[in-house]
Design a protein that fits this description.
Radius of gyration: 16 Å
Number of strands: 0
Structural class: mainly alpha
Distance between the termini: 35 Å
Number of domains: 1
Oligomer: single chain
């Protein structure tokens, strides 16, 4: 498995987190909205691509804010 310099951590985190979250959420929403049939996987993958394109930049922006908010809420 390749490794990356530490400076890429925020970008790599956003890439991985957005991939997993958009995959799972698009699957759940697609299943709820359209049901499970022969075309489910294709609808899910199409929805996932759209969701990932949106999720990646949003997580890139929101993750640092969430980290700072979490730090403020945690007692040392």
């Amino acid at each position: 498995m390749p490794t990356f310099p530490a400076r890429f951590r925020p970008l790599l985190f956003a890439l991985i987190m957005s991939a997993f979250m958009s995959l799972l959420m698009s699957g759940v929403i697609t299943l709820i909205n359209t049901g499970l049939d022969a075309q489910f996987v294709w609808r899910w993958l199409r929805a996932w691509i759209v969701a990932w394109v949106v999720a990646f930049p949003l997580i890139s922006i929101i993750a640092p804010l969430a980290h700072r908010l979490t730090d403020r809420l945690i007692r040392p």
